[in-house]
Design brief:
By secondary structure, the protein is of the alpha+beta class. The protein has one domain: Double-stranded beta-helix. The chain contains eight helices and 15 strands. The protein has a seven-stranded mixed beta sheet, with helices on one face. A three-stranded antiparallel beta sheet has the order 12-6-14. A hairpin with a 6-residue loop joins strand 1 and strand 2. The longest helix is centred in the C-terminal third of the chain and has 15 residues. Bound molecules: fe (ii) ion. Fe (ii) ion binds next to loops.
């Protein structure tokens, strides 16, 4: 089947139809997709039916090493999906029921409605995330993605100079609490230690400079806390301008692939007490 490409936003993002992640698995298919991702940072790949979890994992492994669950789960979390490579981004518990409104696990999932990059709190950061839509709500629940290469390019020289040698500490628990979740227990906290990364990095394959910020950032090297908060807010307000952001409306069967080393993203609100949103992610990581 012939592959067709349509832009998702004037600066970045492309939808490719006619590409099937179950069968387009040859080296030339993967090279084409990686080239598109280097250019566009985001690729939407529609399928008639949702990929099986095993096909989702298998395809992701062709792009790069896949992150596996390596830490004990958050207390009380049962596994709905029996794969260590699948991050369950649904609002469903292990039995397939919608989490009650005050459930801690739901609160942590809602924290993903803040702007972030996946796994920036790990030493080996996420490269590509592949999010697959199994059930989508009738209203809300879009994924918004910001092109952090274009954001960096357009920053004033003075700001670029300020950011040049700064590093930030990224902490998973910081963003969970910031997003309205409860403080983790000491046992939970220890399962996900923080990691440090430069605020600006050179993208490993496209060579473009990228502003690497996320709600996971807890502190910036050598900067008083209030100054760091102000700087991060200022950068976020620039990055989420419509000229840098695409909003993706999901259809069941879609897989959205984004490059975490080139973008920042968030899920938008939806009525998570009324509607099911069953999204499953496989994440590739740095070596
Ligand atoms: Fe995410």
């Amino acid at each position: 089947m012939k592959i067709q490409k349509n832009k998702l936003h004037k600066k970045f993002g492309v939808k490719i139809t006619g590409f099937d992640m179950k069968t387009n698995t040859k080296p030339e298919d993967i090279l084409m997709l990686k080239t598109l991702l280097d250019d566009h940072a985001v690729c939407a790949v529609p399928h008639k039916k949702p990929l099986s979890d095993s096909a989702h994992i298998a395809f992701s492994g062709l792009l790069g090493p896949v992150a596996r669950r390596s830490t004990p789960k958050i207390s009380g979390t049962g596994l709905r999906l029996p794969y260590n490579e699948i991050v369950d981004q649904s609002n469903l518990d292990a039995q397939g029921n919608i989490y009650p409104n005050r459930d801690k696990r739901l609160a942590y999932k809602r924290a993903n409605r803040q702007w972030h990059t996946d796994m920036s709190y790990r030493t080996n950061r996420a490269t590509w995330s592949l999010l697959s839509a199994h059930v989508v709500p009738p209203k809300g629940g879009q994924t918004e993605v910001a092109d952090m290469r274009a954001v960096y390019d357009d920053l004033p020289d003075k700001m670029k100079l300020l950011l040049e040698d700064l590093t930030a500490e990224h902490c998973y628990w910081h963003s969970r609490v910031l997003g309205g979740g409860p403080e983790p227990t000491p046992e939970e906290r220890i399962t996900r230690p923080p990691a440090r990364h430069p605020l600006v990095h050179v993208h490993p394959t496209s060579g473009r400079r990228v502003l690497y910020v996320a709600s996971h950032i807890r502190s910036i090297s050598g900067m008083p806390k209030n100054e760091a908060i102000d700087l991060l807010n200022e950068l976020k307000q620039i990055a989420i301008k419509p000229e840098y952001v695409l909003s993706y409306n999901w259809t069941v069967g879609d897989v959205l692939i984004w490059d975490n080393l080139a973008t920042m993203h968030r899920g938008t609100n939806f009525d998570d007490q009324r509607y099911i949103r069953d999204m499953r992610r496989v994440t590739c990581r740095e070596n």
